[in-house]
Amino acid sequence: MISNIDSLLDKVSSGDILMAKVVRNLAKWTHDLQHCIGLVYYSRDFHQLSLMTNDPQKFLQMNEDQGMDSADDPYTRYRDQNFWSTRTYNQISSIIQLYVKKDAGPLVLEMTGTLNHLTRFDLPSSDGRERIIDSIALMRRISMLDASNIVMKLEAIMLCSKLCENHDTASLVAESNIIHDMISIWEKCDGDAEVHLHILKLCEYLIKFEETRSTVLMGTG
Question: What is the pLDDT of residues 174-203, one digit of tens each?
Fold first, then answer.
């Protein structure tokens, strides 16, 4: 199914919510698979990877004595699969942009959740900056939805946090007004502990970097 992700997204474009849920589940599978690859690389317990896929060698090279060169990048084989290509990402972004204006409902929720499961190993570095800027624009639009749409706002906050996990992407987030949007959500969702928790997690990421720390501590009031 993951090898036909673009065809599945073609159906999502026509409003197929069931297929949107399938795509989100596939994104969660690739996310969990990467987590498992990391665990197996350091623990040398290959049984865990066998539970995730019936072809472990497709994602991590293992020799007869189950040893690996510690200098190897454990995610090389995963990246070579190129599950989430540039076209795939563009399809997801286009679907969100298409539906967020007229129907900020389940379809947008599932596609935003899909983006939340993608990692840096899923996004080609050649156009990474453009993707990040595009994601920020999507987050801003989602964050400005009706205050009652808490679940959708949570997905936007989590996507923002994901982009703030490393220095370069956090700087791009800090340069935008999305942080002020998050503060606005905090105020509008007064009393919602889960919203507050995720916004605090976002601020924790931003405070780690010098460039973004001043935006949080001095730029938001």
Answer: 777 777 887 788 877 777 888 889 888 888
| Full-model pTM | 0.79
Full residue range of the structural domain in which residue 129 is found = 124-221
Euclidean distance between CA atoms 24 and 19, whole angstroms: 9
**Residue 57 located in a structural domain:** no
Which residues have a Cβ under 8 Å from the Cβ of 122 and sit 6 or more positions away?
Answer: 30, 83, 84
Q: For residue range 38-57, what is the model confidence (pLDDT) as tens digits?
A: 998 888 778 888 888 888 88
Angle between helices 167-175 and 193-207 (to 10 degrees): 110
Q: Is residue 175 part of a domain?
A: yes
Residue whose pair of structure tokens reads 């990040």 in the numeric block: 132
Domain contains 143: yes
Let me know if residue 97 belongs to a domain.
Answer: no
